[in-house]
Amino acid sequence: MIDYQLLRARSFNEALEILESKKNVRCLAGGTDILVDLHHKDEFFDSVDYLLDINSIDELKGIKLGKKEGEIGSLTTHSEIIENKELQEKLPFVAAAAASIGSTQIRNRATIGGNLVNAAACADSFSPMIALEAEVVLVSKRGERRLSIRDFIKSPYKTALAEDELLKKIVFPMPQGEYYSSYQKIGRRKAVSISRISLTLLAEVKAEKIVNIQVVSGAATPSPVPFEKVNEYLSAKNLAEVDSKEAGRIAAEEMVEITGRRWSTPYKQPALSKLVERAVEDMLEEAGYNG
Ligand SMILES: Cc1cc2nc3c(=O)[nH]c(=O)nc-3n(C[C@H](O)[C@H](O)[C@H](O)COP(=O)(O)OP(=O)(O)OC[C@H]3O[C@@H](n4cnc5c(N)ncnc54)[C@H](O)[C@@H]3O)c2cc1C
Known about the structure:
Layout: E1 5-8, H1 12-21, E2 25-28, H2 34-40, E3 50-53, E4 63-65, E5 69-73, H3 78-83, H4 85-90, H5 92-99, H6 104-109, H7 112-118, H8 126-131, E6 135-140, E7 143-148, H9 149-152, E8 153-155, E9 158-159, E10 166-173, E11 178-187, E12 195-206, E13 209-217, H10 228-234, H11 244-259, H12 265-286
Parallel strand pairs: 1-3, 2-3
Antiparallel strand pairs: 4-5, 5-10, 6-7, 6-10, 8-9, 11-12, 12-13
Helix pairs in contact: 10-11, 11-12
Bound molecules: flavin-adenine dinucleotide.
């Protein structure tokens, strides 16, 4: 029997007061994860007495991209991310990840904050945010703290969010100078695909040399992590020396080191290898090295 009370916060402060004063409260943003859990997993709601609708809180909305730092409010929907022209231009991999999520109906409701707090291994917002070295801003009546996305995610479906905290926004340094990026995903079905494997590549290039690179796994590993060995292989390489197949091979090997050999390895290994190869080729093509 599912028995919970629905509350609506009219302001940011009211939401924080409710989270402080009541136990077993869960926020309701787009509801595309939590309402599915409500209908499918009764035991999940044993620990939920209140659903707190946060949709009227303006402080949680919007995208601001400054010269040095950018931020995305937690209530920003995936559709708003895709439609933001400045973001499309400056952070195309973030828009591509958002565009790959679910269907139009899902993207119109579902938020980036919900995606991160739900923390499914296949959540598509993690790899672009880790590549950007983003931080989450968590607020409660006790104050505000910032955590790197990597510290925020503890394990699949577990984050460092405390019971009385709201995820306010995601902040990140804007990529500087000459940079190239790619977002890649293989899903289950075309229209509404939860990713099986996804990744983000973000590379900063100076005088045709890669000076900073982040290749970050999405659903390929239990939690999204940078592929350190691929990053090492690509770091400090001149673009003309980059072998995309070799980068793919290294990534596939590294994935197995992280996950161990599983029933899905014979499928995932070549698939990931190909995705990394494509991401590297995207970078080379964008930079004018299309072989
Ligand atoms: C058909 C379908 C297809 C989907 N496809 C994809 C896909 O391709 N890729 C993908 O990554 N996901 C997919 N999803 C999952 C889901 O849509 C996303 O994870 C979505 O971004 C969740 O956002 P939401 O606003 O709906 O979160 P909600 O369901 O409202 O909330 C999710 C969790 O986050 C918490 N929460 C939300 N906002 C805050 C906040 N500001 N502060 C504190 N806690 C908060 C809630 O309490 C809850 O625990 C799909 C879902 C469906 C139903």
